[in-house]
Amino acid sequence: MKIEETKLNWTLNVIARVFVGLVFIFSGFVKGVDPMGTAFKITEYLTAWSFFGVSFEWLVPLAPLMSMTLIVLEFTVGVMLLFGAFRRLSAWLLVLMMLFFTVTTLVDAITNKVTDCGCFGDAIKLTNWQTFWKNIVLDVPTVWIFLTRNIFRKKRFERDVLIMVFAIVIMVIFGVYNINNEPCIDFRPWKVGNQMVDVSDNDEVKSYVTYRNKETGEMDEFLSAELVKKMEDPTWEQAWEWESSRVVDPHEIKADGFSMLDMDMNDHAKELLCSDEYLLISTIHHLEKMNAKGIESMQRAMEIAEENGLQMVVLSSALPEDVEMFLYDNKLDNLEFYFADATAIETMLRSNPGFILLKKGKVLGKWHYRNAADIADFKFKFE
Fold first, then answer.
1. What was the pLDDT predicted at 219?
2. What gap in Å lies between CA 371 and CA 296, rounded to an integer?
3. CA neighbours within 13 Å on the CB side: how many for 8?
4. Would strands 279-284 and 311-316 be described as parallel, antiparallel, or unpaired?
5. Which pairs count as long-range contacts for 288-293, CB under 8 Å and 24+ apart, including other chains?
């Protein structure tokens, strides 16, 4: 199909390239902020999916490399589209990527094997169907970009090479930095400064119930105590029907599925996080992947904790006997240890191990194991 070189077609091509390019740049950037999070999401896909009975779990060790490849490719294609660099190449890459994304998200929306595609990292959460329809919207300008890839095309090889290489180098450096440190922008619940637990004296747990008016469809929410009074009216149940309910606990931890279990499966999360004293948690989401530098960082963190009178505990997803043996072998056996789900720990810190400092339910600091010595620079204030 030959597209005429008219001003209108050129204008539409520019608008389409700018729109899709900016979306791809944003998507690549927010993934590049947290490459390990993208690797975890790829791992989730590889373990959840199979094709005609063939599993993809053998690719799991390559998830970090696949993550960086996707991030760099997405960001680079976005930059090339925005600046009109290598228009044929960028159009082909774009159409192939969008075909892959559209088919993948359609299957994901139908099967729901992975509940969040992670297309915008942790910055923006979309449902599977929202993600699919987002891709359908992007497919429209993608087709136009592909069909008009040859109109008004100028040969600017040196310029285009510089643009492509610049985009690749910038994103590789940015991604590697965020792998070797905690993400420079934290979109997760355990962000420094976040109040994870309300430590006020308000202990009242409130129950709310939502009812729908059968005639008008109006939705209204009531406190349980108010509902009792409403139901004293004999006509109430004829006009209203139950829709949903929720419970508000003022001391609920603002992180889904988080717990700190002891060996008897008692949860100490609220007790520890709400402490008036500093609490330094060393998180280990995969004990078997711990390296020598990680072990040294835990030993250094323990020294800092002892020097400053901090309570330090270990939070791991490994088996109790494995954690006990690990701590004993590495002269860390005087530390208390608790257990949590690996995903919950990965949400706290990408580093393995990592360190997070809390007091009165508030996150005060987070450190990658490579930066464990920096914990000593924190200005501790004891009252």
1. 82
2. 11
3. 2
4. parallel
5. 288/318, 289/352, 290/326, 290/352, 290/353, 293/369, 293/370
Residue from 270, 300, 280 nearest 366 by CA: 280
Q: What is the mean pLDDT of residues 349-364?
A: 93
pLDDT tens figures, 338-355: 999 888 999 999 999 999
Q: How far is CA 21 from CA 14, 74, 214, 382, in A?
A: 10, 9, 48, 51
363 pairs with which residues across the strands? Answer: 358
What is the C-alpha separation between 12 and 52, in angstroms, rounded?
A: 42
| Alpha-carbon distances, residue 236 vs 217, 275, 283 (angstroms) | 14, 46, 52
Give the residue carrying structure tokens 């774009």. 94
Q: For residue 74, what are its two tokens?
A: 């997405």
- Cβ–Cβ < 8 Å for 301, 355: yes
Q: Which of 18, 17, 28 is nearest to 118 (CA)?
A: 28
| AA identity, residue 69 | T
Across 99-128, b (16+ Cβ under 10 Å) vs e yields eebbebbbebbeeeebeebbbbbbeeebeb
CA–CA gap between residue 217 and residue 194 (Å, rounded): 38
Q: At what angle do helices 7-32 and 128-147 cross, to 10 degrees?
A: 140
Residues 17, 97 contacting (CB under 8 angstroms): no
Whole-number Å distance between alpha carbons of 282 and 280: 7
Distance CA 47, CA 52 (A): 14
C-alpha 22/C-alpha 146 separation (Å) is 17
pTM of the model: 0.80
Q: Give per-residue pLDDT as tens, 225-252.
A: 676 777 777 777 778 787 777 766 666 7
Q: How many CA atoms does the CB half-sphere of 231 hold within 13 Å?
A: 12
